[in-house]
Amino acid sequence: MPWSLPHRRGNAAADVATSTALGENCLLTALRADDLARLQPNLARVSLRQGEVIHRAGEPIEQVYFLVSGMVSIVAIMRTGEAIETAIIGREGVVGGAVGSNGARSAGQAVVQIAGAGWRIQSAKFSELYRASDPFRTLVNNFQGVVLLQAQQSAACHALHSVEARLCRWLLQSQDITASDIIPLTQEFLSHMLGVRRTSVSLSAHALQKAGLIRYSRGEIKIVNRAGLMETACECYEVVREYIDQAVPPLRRRTKAESSPDDAV
Ligand SMILES: [Zn+2]
Q: What is the pTM (predicted TM-score) of this model?
């Protein structure tokens, strides 16, 4: 796979739990052994279907999710029903982590955009450890910073950057999260997430395909030239990537053998 992520520094190697039973969620695998032992009995493995809404805006967060594959979007929904994506979360973070610090209600709607799997925990149990463990609280807070940064960057990106550059950014972020060159999403879906007309997405996708950066077919986009996408993407991709690299434990690159099949529940 033609990509690499910068190595992140860390001095907590001795504390890193190496259990692979929890899959590849970066926060779970970075937990101290005692925190992991406390959390693990409360974690339930779940599969996540595309389109599944796991948190609704304004409603209580009953459960928190640690993804090991797939991708969840946090979207802001207008009264007209229109929605726009403000952040995406995958195996490098936690969905609903805000419940630890601010109680209970979801600020946005969390919807599964790419099917996958993860670990689910009741909010009360999550909050117990959040209050009790400084390292766990720090991990979660750092990731909540990532969600906030994404929302902030998305606001500027939407106002200032071209659809083509934003599409490149989105594809790169999705590739990082899923560790796959194939993004199983339609252009119609992308138009909703990017907040633009479908024809704008079609024109941009066509230009990117013509330039040899992607190939698209019904229901999926294949990334064939990551370096080219990085050149075309707006600066927001690198801003968010660098922030994530500083804030959360490193993503481990998957081998082909580890992809997909192990994610089945
Ligand atoms: Zn941008």
A: 0.83
